[in-house]
Amino acid sequence: MGVQQNLRRGEVTIRHLSKSYRLNGAPLPVLKDINLNIRSGETLAIVGASGSGKTTLLRVLAGLEDADAGDVLIDGTAIRGVGAERAVIFQEPRLLPWLTVLDNVGFGLETRGLSRSEARGRAQHYVQLVGLQQFEGAYPRQLSGGMAQRVGIARALAVQPEILLLDEPLGALDAMTKISMQQELARIWRDEDVTTVLVTHDLEEAIYLADRILILPREKEGEPRLIEIDLPRPRDRSAPDFVRHREELLSIFGLH
Q1: What is the 8-class DSSP label of residue 100?
Q2: CA torsion sign, 190 to 53 to 225 to 256?
Q3: Is 51 inside any structural domain?
């Protein structure tokens, strides 16, 4: 009980987490003995080479997959399966094509106990938060990729989760839209103060958005690394300290 009293809302503890798949009948280790505390309200980016287990770790945190061993605790309580305190955003926003922007964002709120007027009011708030108030009545087919992803983010935030889990949410966007969306995400997370875990293959995106970066090793015998990104916000990609972090990451991945 004492431990839970000291925890803020949305704090995640990962203890001795391991996960394997089976390939041609043999076990294929993906995650091995991962231990990590994710602070309430922080943004953690997860990076690593292909096959390092980034998306697997996110799916375990989301409750979409079970670990072979170890625990994930949220606010001191071990999780089992999906839960209302977590919301997931994938690379494709997966909007319902027959619903407007506003109805997509509000979808499911009434089933959580909100009245119709409360659900509509909350949906309007989050549509405005992502800057799409002029598109409330638009349908998904009428939206650009970046706009559709904003709707997905608004929908996830509308349920007011403690923890937001994102799996390469900007990976399908063009370079200019991606930069604009990164700026939007940084602003939204500052306003919402929600614990965020972001899987990305974009090292600069990780530096721009994250408070800390978790680097998963390609070799399962290797140790994960945590890097603190102690840069003021909003972040300047051309600032010497930003460039220093980028050079450090490139060096770790053997790209420099």
Answers
A1: -
A2: negative
A3: yes
Q: How many angstroms separate the CA atoms of 240 and 179, rounded?
A: 19
| CA–CA distances in Å: residue 231 to residues 182, 211, 235, 236 | 16, 8, 7, 9
3-state secondary structure (DSSP) of residue 25:
coil
Question: Tokens 């995650």 sit at which residue?
Answer: 31
The answer to whether residues 235 and 118 belong to one domain is no
pLDDT in tens, 38-65: 999 999 999 998 889 999 999 999 999 9
Query: 151 with 143: CB under 8 angstroms?
Result: yes
Give the pLDDT mean for 123-147.
96
Q: Residue 112's domain spans which residues?
A: 95-160
Closest CA to 218 of 51, 67, 31, 54: 51
Cis peptide before 234 (omega within 30 of 0): yes
Looking at 160, 175, 207, which one is the last position of a domain?
Answer: 160
In a domain, 206, yes or no: yes
* Domain end call among 160, 175, 209: 160
